[in-house]
Design a protein that fits this description.
The chain is α+β, with helices and mostly antiparallel strands. It has two domains: 4-49 and 126-184; 54-120, no CATH class. The chain contains five helices and six strands. It has helices at 4-15, 28-46, 134-153, 159-184, 190-206, and strands spanning 54-59, 73-76, 81-88, 101-103, 106-109, 114-120. Strands 1-6-3 form a three-stranded antiparallel β-sheet. It has a three-stranded antiparallel β-sheet with strand order 2-5-4, with no helix packed on it. The N and C termini lie far apart (52 Å). 24% of the residues are buried.
Length: 207
């Protein structure tokens, strides 16, 4: 479980200065990290479909907005929306909404209700440092060190090394997250699928 201070000190360990003792310490390193923190968080959340940041909501259309061209329902993205993971008219999200389109800050759809899973920067999801997996926290710290490098060290020579380190740690975090995703959505075997199809057929015949 990470903390913001731990992320700052991880980033500092890439740059050389001594550790911070608190988030209010009057040092240029802390000030530089504060200046870049929000943009780094947004960049990191945009870079993947991170399992820990996913939020699922039921959306209803904006009754005051009208899509005059296609006659579709208009949905406003919530304020914590970062990236789309899945969009479906079905609460169990067993099939995708193939009609949806993204236009600016809204989503258009043929359906009057949507169940949407998205990357969220809400304080309980993507902005909650305490739930970051360690590999994601490592990549976050590397990105923070890279963005704050020049204000802290004034040394352009370390930027290339920081770029390479961040690229490696981000790849490691994405690989681990992708493994978790495959396990979660592992497809059932052919025998299980055939049993489900048979059961559905029997229910239809019974009706």
């Amino acid at each position: 479980m990470a903390t913001k201070l731990q992320l700052y000190n991880q980033a500092l360990s890439r740059l050389g200065p001594v550790r911070l003792t608190g988030l209010t310490e009057n040092r240029p390193e802390r000030i530089a990290f504060d200046q870049h923190y929000d943009e780094v968080m947004q960049e990191m959340l945009e870079s993947g479909l991170w399992e820990f940041s996913l939020r699922t909501q039921e959306w209803t259309p904006d009754i005051d907005a009208v899509d005059s061209i296609n006659g579709q329902y208009v949905y406003n993205k919530p304020s914590d929306y970062v990236r789309l993971r899945k969009i479906s008219p079905d609460q169990s999200q067993t099939y995708e909404d193939l009609s949806y389109k993204r236009e600016g800050e809204v989503i258009l759809s043929d359906y009057s209700t949507l169940f949407v899973t998205y990357v969220s920067n809400h304080a309980s999801y993507g902005a909650n440092v305490g739930i970051y997996p360690q590999l994601f926290a490592n990549a976050f710290a590397d990105c923070l060190a890279l963005r704050a490098n020049l204000p802290i060290t004034k040394d352009r020579g370390t930027s290339a090394d920081l770029e390479r380190k961040f690229a490696r740690s981000l790849m490691q975090a994405k690989r681990a997250d992708a493994v978790d995703e495959r396990i979660k959505f592992k497809q059932p075997g052919t025998w299980t699928q055939s049993r489900r199809q048979s059961n559905r057929g029997q229910r239809r015949e019974a009706t």
